[in-house]
Structures are given as structure tokens and as C-alpha cells.
Amino acid sequence: MTNLTGNTxxxxxxxxxxxxxxxxxxxCEDKIDFxxxxxxxxxxxEDKEERYRFEWNGKSRSIKLAQTPSTGTLRPCKEESKNxxxxxxxxxxxxxxxxxxxxxxxxxxxxKMIYIDPPYNTGKDFIYPDNYRDNLQNYLEMxxxxxxxxxxxxxxxxxxxxxxxxxxxxxxxxxxxARNLLTDDGVIFISIDDNxxxxxxxxxxxxFGEENFVGIITWSKKRKGSFLSKRIVSTTEYLxxxxxxxNSNCYLYGGSPDDNESQPIxxxxxxxxxxTIKKGL
Length: 281
Known about the structure:
The relative contact order is 0.12. This protein has helices at residues 11-22, 34-41, 59-67, 96-107, 135-142, 163-181, 197-208; strands spanning 27-28, 31-32, 111-116, 182-192, 213-220, 236-243, 252-253, 276-277. Strands 3-4-6-5 form a 4-stranded mixed sheet. The protein has a two-stranded antiparallel ribbon with strand order 1-2. Strands 7-8 form a two-stranded antiparallel sheet. 28% of the residues lie in helices and 15% in strands. Helix 3 runs parallel beside helix 6 (163-181) and helix 4 (96-107) packs parallel to helix 6. The chain is globular. Strand 1 (27-28) and strand 2 (31-32) form a beta hairpin. The protein is an alpha+beta fold. It has a single domain (56-277), classed as Rossmann fold, CATH 3.40.50. The chain has 7 helices and 8 strands.
């Protein structure tokens, strides 16, 4: 099993080091001269006040939150583990934002595939607000692992006035940190439904780059909807697929359908073949 360090990778310092390696001339007394950086980048700098971009209240804070070192550490539970010295598996329980930060140093650029099943923001999901100064303390309070000092747990309902905003602020820093863990040919799969599929795709386009969007897989979650609904009933959910870098040796292999499964192949006359998505598509 890979040994995990107890401290957090300094992502800001690493990014600055990369900029310094590419553009050493834009540094003055170890600080970035942004005017000089704009001159070096030339025509690739956007100088218009109005531009196309995805914005919401709290986005800047979400970016800083992803860059803030973790306030926690990982504690081994050998008494609850099996084959501690020989296992190749790792199970971590805790706040996923803090865990993602702690994984940066050991697993940076080492993970081939990530699958996440985030809250769908249906109005019944519990989405606690991340605390910029001490997210671990906030997590323990909001999940009642310690005294909450009168804080009330509630779902992220539409009546909150920040229905989409709270969800976006929860997802953004986690996706930024998840991207850092992926290898250059790594891929992330994200489950979602109609409530936030549009916003999730926009976040992924920004974090991973629109050119690395692979596609959306639609799967049937049930055969029919409720006859009592006053709206069009959705019987499907989605799986958003994004690569870290589609120009690398990134391959996705599709499995063969099985008629014995609950959702068999739609047309029985279709031939069963293996689908290969080649790099660069």
C-alpha cells in the first residue's frame, strides 16, 4: 500500500514554479509582473471587459479554497483494516475536500480513472458550506461529529436563494483537485441528473478544458415514470466523461451488453462489438 504523507502539496507554489520555468522574464524579485506577462502573451490576452465566461457568486472563493492547505491529517485505522501490510487498496473516510488535498502530494498525476457520484441537487441533498479558514472544523460541526454550537443541518432547497450557487461552490474546488490527481491520459466519470447536468458540463469545460470533453452517456434508471406527474417524466440519468488531456494516449473501451441484465441491448438485431474511442477525437 502506498504510504500517504500527512502534509498537503503546495499547489500555488508549484504553479508559480511552472510559470517561472516557461516565462522567467515576467518575474521581478520573485513576484509575477502581470503587465509584463500580458506583453509576452501578446494577442492571446483578452482585454475586453465583456467576454463569455461562467460566473456565479463565490467562484473566486472556491478557487482559493482549492488552493488552501488542508487543516487535517489522515489517521490509520489498523484495527479496522484487513491485510494492512500487503493490501493494494485504500479506503478513506472523511470530508472529501480535505482528503483530496491530502492526496495531492502522494497521488499527484498518478490516478488513471476517477468516478464520483456527487449530490444531484434535487432539493433533498445535504450540501454543507465549506469554511474557508477551517473546512475540517466546519465539516465536523455540520455532520454532527462534534457539537455544532446551534448550527442547523438543512437540505439545499430552492427556497434558500442560493440553490445552484451553493452546489457550484461545493463542486468547483473538488473538481480542480481531482484533475490534479489524474495522469495525462486519465479520465473522470461523473454521475448527475437533469438538475445540474448543464452546470456540471460548464464547470468541467472550465476546469479540464472544453477540448477534453469526451461526451455524455445516458442510461435508463427506470422503464417508466409516474402517471401522477404534471411534468415530462425523466427516466434517465447521465454520466459525464472528461479526459485530462485527449491529445495524450487516452483510450476508452466500451464493454459488451448482456441480455440477462436489467437493461438489455435496445435492438436485439444489433451486433455486439467492442467500442474503442481513440485519442484525438
